[in-house]
UniProtKB/TrEMBL annotation:
Organism ancestry: Bacteria, Pseudomonadati, Pseudomonadota, Betaproteobacteria, Burkholderiales
Family annotation (Pfam families): TetR_N
Top-rank lineage group of the source organism: Bacteria
Protein name listed in UniProt: TetR family transcriptional regulator
Annotated keywords: DNA-binding, Transcription, Transcription regulation
Length: 203
């Protein structure tokens, strides 16, 4: 039976979302096309009707996951973002957590389109971490960007290191706590007002 264009698009989006979670959980090399399509509820043969290659799906699913993180960060102040991002809850939910932390290392060894997606994702996350409605000029702009880069790199690196430790390792929690407090201490007191983070998955 022939499916409608709308259903075909919905099926494609479902495959992308499924891939986004599986890649975050197992890594790019840990998920084959057959397993991925089976998890999404489709046959292996249907993959190439929707995507040109696995690399294309990797790039598209990365963009999907990063967009989720950006959406959740909108309207949330930086301290609150840091508190959630560097929490045990986020660390232990790899499949629905930040794509940058889960797959950044893998992305470095992937084709350029995948790396370009991550570069664009970094820019989106930097924009999300910038104070809304704040205008900067010249050196102030560069300084604000450097500050956001430092926070993002610090937070992503902390999650990567914590996940590299055994789940019950005291060091795993120590890494999160030390980096969380270091970042929060670097922020100005005026920026520490709490805005609750929405209770959704992080991309």
């Amino acid at each position: 039976m022939k499916i409608t264009k709308a259903q075909a698009q919905a099926n494609r989006e479902h495959v992308v979302e499924t891939a986004s979670q599986l890649f975050r959980e197992r890594g790019y090399d840990g998920v084959g096309v057959a397993d991925l399509m089976a998890a999404a509820g489709f046959t292996h043969g249907g993959f190439y009707k929707q995507f040109r290659s696995k690399a294309d799906l990797m790039a598209e699913s990365a963009a999907c996951g990063i967009a989720q993180t950006v959406a959740l960060s909108a309207g949330v102040n930086v301290p609150e973002f840091v508190r959630y991002y560097l929490s045990r809850e986020h660390r232990d939910t790899r499949a629905t957590g930040c794509t940058m932390a889960a797959l950044g290392g893998d992305a470095a060894r992937q084709p350029e389109p995948v790396r370009a997606t991550f570069a664009a994702g970094i820019e989106s996350l930097l924009a999300a971490l910038s104070p809304e409605g704040t205008e900067f000029d010249g050196a102030d702009t560069a300084q604000a960007r450097a500050r956001s880069l430092d926070i993002l790199a610090h937070a992503v690196g902390a999650i990567v290191m914590s996940r590299a430790c055994p789940d019950d390792s005291p060091l795993a929690d120590e890494i999160l706590a030390a980096c969380r407090e270091k970042i929060l201490a670097s922020l100005s007191p005026s920026a520490t007002a709490s805005t609750p983070l929405p209770e959704h998955t992080t991309g």
